[in-house]
Design brief:
242 residues; Oxidized Rhodanese, domain 1; Glutaredoxin; 2 domains; five-stranded parallel beta sheet; 10 helices; 19% strand; elongated
Length: 242
Amino acid sequence: MSRINLLILIAFLTSLNSCGQNSTNDTQSVDLFHTLSPIEYQNALENREIILIDVRTAEEYATGAIANAKNIDYLQDDFESKILNLDRNRPIYVYCKVGGRSGDAVEVFRKNGFHHVVNLKGGIMAWSQAKLPLTANSNTMAKDEMSFENYQKVITENEIVLVDFYAPWCKPCQRMKPLIEELEKKYSSSLRVLKLDYDKNLNLAKSENVTALPMIIVYRNGKKTYSEIKEHSATELEALMK
């Protein structure tokens, strides 16, 4: 074999080895830090080695949780110090309401040396929508902050009603807050804005089919004309008034 051909062969074998190493690393990355659908997540929980963490607030946790979940509130200042007491060698499964806080929590676990962390896609809302079980402390019949009767009264007695289902922990909701306040000022003569905390109005949310946040609903003269789950821009909110 000539010197040139030998060099070409060595370069080719080196390339194969390099590709193989990258593939292995990519697979490990996907396997160790990933997101599962509710059904996949439930099936995985059969593994008794898993540590299941509910990163919602204590109030949210009290409304119903996945069996055997330990509540460590991501929004509390001591979240990071509390997770340091967990076994880094065991798989950590996390979830929240819709997947945002738990997604952020995954990064905190990663930063602190945890090697296998899995997030629930869509959070507890997707879990419930898939009709998967919650613990007995579920209290979906708890009294709403706003009664259904008062809700209907507001809808029927105002020309235009913009219903904003939000939550304090929902980042897109918080980004939309000043936009909605500005809209309310601009159309104060005809628009009534009804801000409803999802966690304090679970029955109303269910009746309006709120499966994620933020959700904007528009009623005109008592008739629903718009309903969508998304973060709306100022332009999109303005268009709803036309």
